[in-house]
Amino acid sequence: MKTLLISLMAATAMMASAPAWAQSNEIAVIVKTANSNFWQNVNKGAEAALKDLPDYTMTFQGPAAESNVADQVNMVENAVNRHVAGIVLAPSDPDALIPSIKKAWENAIPVVLIDSGLSEEGSKYYQSFLSTDNKAAGELCAKEMIERMGKEGKVAIMSYVPGVGSEIGRVGGFTDYIKQNSNIEIVGPLYSQSLMATALNQTVDTLAANPDLKGIFGANEPTAAGMGRAIEQAGKAGQLTAIGFDGNQDLQNFVRNGTLDGIAVQGSFQMGELGIQTVAKVIAGDKVEKFIDTGVVFVTKENIDKPEAKNVLY
């Protein structure tokens, strides 16, 4: 116990001393999945930040699917074992990643979280958390939903991976706002595991089972994309209020053609860019905020070509 305490004290001392941070020149960016335009846009932001940091290199990786949490844990473990300078991480599970992040902390490797947070137990092991305020973003989507469909009727919630930090905030914020500000009946949530094809099939079934549905919310990129396709296939475009989350080309097209009334778009590029910049600041010994809000823009047909939307769409 004494030996562990001494090692932890030593690690903490290293963290307080700027030169002791960097053990190599590699910053590892580890996201929920590499197979998503959203996360590829995070990659672009990280690469942009690296242009101003010539002393560092970057690696970018993520599991084949967001639900492959064990694969992501292994990626973090491997980054720690090769003594990277820092880690930018979008954790796929609020609890499963804590032991690996603790290991990084014990080895004086700074960790900056993006997009999703950790359970309270893990808060002392990372240096900063960059994210959309997902609860506020969910509330924004609910407010827009009510304004368009009214305070009565049914709304279906098409969610992604249960228990993920962003999902808890986003869907929780949406649900709470609906319950507190309307008499709307909620159907779901249904969980697509962030698979577009699953979301498509779930939406087809939901539309068939609820012909009186007045609204539908798709809570992340692959889920909203599958939802949009299902709405089109069912010939329901424009017949119910549909709101999505994130902003790839498919979702932009759905907004333009009226399949979706709007999309709440996070600053994914900013997450990557600020993630790298924040790790570099920690290594340099600069003070950073524990939480940095990367913002959200609600994009509709009316503002999709304006700078405020173009800055976040991808």
UniProtKB/TrEMBL annotation:
Presence of the UniProt keyword Signal in the record: yes
Keyword Signal among UniProt keywords: yes
SUPFAM superfamilies linked to this entry: Periplasmic binding protein-like I
GO MF annotation list: carbohydrate binding
Pfam families named among the record's database cross-references: Peripla_BP_4
GO cellular component: cell envelope
Annotated localization: Cell envelope
Keywords (A to Z) from UniProt: Signal
Residue ranges occupied by any Periplasmic binding protein domain in the UniProt entry: 27-286
Domain of life: Bacteria
Signal peptide: 1-22
Family classification: Belongs to the bacterial solute-binding protein 2 family.
The protein's name in its UniProt record: Monosaccharide ABC transporter substrate-binding protein, CUT2 family
